[in-house]
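Reading a protein record of the kind used here takes only a little practice. The integers have meaning only within a learned vocabulary of local backbone shapes. With that in mind, consider the following protein and its fold in token form:
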Amino acid sequence: MKKSFSFFLFFIILLSCLSAEEIISVTLPAADTLELVPYAKFDFAKIDESSAIIKSRVWDDVYWTLNDSGNKNRIFPFNCNGQMYRAEWYKENEGGVYLAGALNIDWEEMAVDNNDNIYVCDTGNNDNARRDLCIYQLKDPFPKFSGSVNYFQKYHIYYPEQKDFPARINNWDCEAVFWANGKLYFLTKHRADSLTKLYRMDSMDALKENPLTYLATFDIQGMVTAADVTPDGKKLAVLTYDNIWVFEVKKGDKYFQGSIKWLPISAKQCEGICFDDEDTLLITNEQMEIFEVKIADMIEVK
């Protein structure tokens, strides 16, 4: 009887060890928080909840942003100085490019690939109760177009690990999506702990729900609000409300295991980040401000 019980206990412990996920972390040095100073502001009053920023890989000096939940189904083109591109027939309250047939439940991010595609990510999930998370795919529109464009694919996604709706642990929000290695990647925003989980979208089927593949967990020491990657997929920038992280790998997608740079910041409610070039990051907040950060000014922590 004792032998059976001991074996059972050993088996339970073994299963627990096998199922426990590895949490990757780094020790951060003491550092002063850098208070960012905006170099520009959006000149269009309706861009008042900027929750994403991407740099166009089609048009020169064109960036795109969007507002999050409760706003219209549109994206906004602007230049590096925050000036929105306007058509000749532009109307003040109707600016931006609308996605025909799309619904802005909680748009929180945008991503861009190397094939002229933009991905509008309706992945916000503050209450962890949504079963309709989705991605809209469209071609990078002409920035001075005023009206509606059609997205050509809509992908439904889900996390296989989430079993309860709403979840008992509030860790299934996502406001950071990027394209690398021919696939979309997702970073979760946690409210129950300081972690983030990296997922990959291995199937893009518009006719079914697409499961996300779990890859790794990192102690990001905050809540992730945005991400972007260089066109070659080697540098990943991740934004939280209080920090910027840059992860670099030589190849593949084991970003948390490569070299890491970090910078503590203060810049109000920052929710958008993109690479302006390999050495420069642009950041937007919900107060209509735009910031620039040089990667050379960040602290190497790994």
About this structure: The longest strand covers residues 209-219.
